[in-house]
């Protein structure tokens, strides 16, 4: 019966990777005890957006095996890399960028990082917006100071289940940094290579707006898994978003998808939806995957000012649910990206 169980599991495909769970090496355990099958599936990310579908498909396939009357499905997760890790211990570096300021890029980066960490991933968040760092404030740690460990490496701070570094925690509050390109490059190098990030599934990097020195330093220094573009729907933002997409393509960084922020507004008193900036405008950017549409939300702004990601403060709100789905869709895109370098067949353990 065990052989029949494994044969049945070979008919179940990962809905994003479009290969069966057995050849992908995602089945850690498949045994039969009496008339009950016990199956453990290792997802390619703790934030798998289609976990429910995978469970349903596994149940249906296993229950088709004669003699099996019930199935207990459990899950683990193992984030895979397509090649060499970007940094020691860091499986994926993901850049969150925009063509212009004011589109809510940092808010998206913070909430995506927090959502991935809440789902069980090991997450780091690097604030690469050296001139206008805001990540520390949004995490409620604006007054914290970065220290060095025994190996004289910067020790990332921790907040809400993730590790982070920001220039706001290294320079005096309110002090402007008047730096030229070489100094920016040196700072980015230190954040990446002189910090004790530890073992991470994802390192989210909040980029400054535009297509300048920081973006070039990052893409030329380490292997980046991919980039996310944050934009608002109106044409004036889309023009600059297109420039950011072009920059990443020229730097050979895959663009994993687009987040349309401030996509719409739901009036709290009437429940009516208003497309203040032209919802869906980001689809003009072409065939890039749409990771999600995030509404304007007063509570999300208040949460950011209070130093608590809205996905944690108000997880049931429309904005928080949209941002959580963005995080899970992004994790799914990373899994697809990593698959391209995996062997066609993996051994069954």
TrEMBL record:
Molecular functions per Gene Ontology: 4 iron, 4 sulfur cluster binding; ATP binding; ATP hydrolysis activity; ATP-dependent FeS chaperone activity; metal ion binding
InterPro entries per the UniProt record, alphabetical: FSCA_dom_sf, MIP18-like, Mrp-like_CS, Mrp/NBP35_ATP-bd, NUBPL-like, P-loop_NTPase, YlxH/NBP35
Pfam families: FeS_assembly_P, ParA
MIP18 family-like domain ranges (all copies): 2-74
Highest taxon, organism lineage: Bacteria
GO biological process, one term: iron-sulfur cluster assembly
Residues that, per the record, bind ATP: 99-106
Keywords: ATP-binding, Hydrolase, Iron, Iron-sulfur, Metal-binding, Nucleotide-binding
Iron-sulfur listed as a keyword: yes
PANTHER family: IRON-SULFUR PROTEIN NUBPL (PTHR42961:SF2)
Subunit field text: Homodimer.
Function: Binds and transfers iron-sulfur (Fe-S) clusters to target apoproteins. Can hydrolyze ATP.
HAMAP family linked: Mrp_NBP35
Family per record: Belongs to the Mrp/NBP35 ATP-binding proteins family.
Name of the molecule in the record: Iron-sulfur cluster carrier protein
């Amino acid at each position: 019966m065990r052989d029949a169980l494994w044969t049945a599991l070979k008919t179940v495909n990962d809905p994003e990777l479009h290969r069966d769970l057995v050849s992908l090496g995602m089945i850690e355990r498949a045994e039969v005890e009496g008339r009950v099958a016990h199956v453990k599936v290792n997802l390619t990310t703790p934030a798998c957006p289609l976990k429910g579908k995978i469970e349903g498909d596994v149940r249906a396939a296993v229950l088709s095996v004669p003699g099996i009357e019930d199935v207990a499905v459990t899950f683990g997760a193992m984030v895979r890399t397509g090649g060499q890790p970007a940094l020691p211990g860091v499986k994926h570096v993901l850049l969150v960028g925009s063509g212009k300021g004011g589109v809510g890029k940092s808010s998206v980066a913070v909430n995506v990082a927090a959502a991935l960490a809440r789902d069980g991933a090991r997450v780091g968040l690097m604030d690469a917006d050296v001139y206008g760092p805001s990540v520390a404030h949004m995490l409620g740690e604006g007054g914290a100071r970065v220290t060095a460990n025994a190996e004289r490496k910067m020790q990332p701070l921790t907040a809400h289940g993730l590790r982070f570094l920001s220039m706001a925690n290294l320079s005096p509050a309110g002090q402007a940094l008047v730096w030229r390109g070489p100094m920016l490059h040196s700072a980015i190098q230190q954040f990446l290579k002189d910090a004790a990030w530890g073992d991470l599934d994802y390192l989210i990097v909040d980029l400054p707006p535009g297509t300048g020195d920081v973006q070039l330093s990052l893409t030329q220094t380490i292997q980046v898994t991919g980039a996310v573009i944050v934009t608002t729907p109106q044409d004036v933002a889309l023009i600059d978003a297109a420039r950011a997409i072009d920059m990443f393509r020229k730097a050979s960084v895959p663009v994993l998808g687009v987040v349309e922020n401030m996509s719409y507004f739901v009036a709290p008193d009437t429940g009516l939806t208003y497309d203040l900036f032209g919802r869906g405008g980001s689809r003009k950017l072409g065939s890039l995957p749409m990771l999600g549409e995030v509404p304007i939300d007063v509570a999300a702004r208040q949460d950011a000012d209070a130093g608590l990601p809205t996905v944690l403060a108000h997880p049931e709100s429309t904005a928080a649910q949209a941002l959580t789905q963005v995080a899970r869709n992004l994790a799914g895109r990373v899994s697809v990206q990593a698959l391209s370098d995996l062997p066609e067949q993996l051994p069954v353990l």
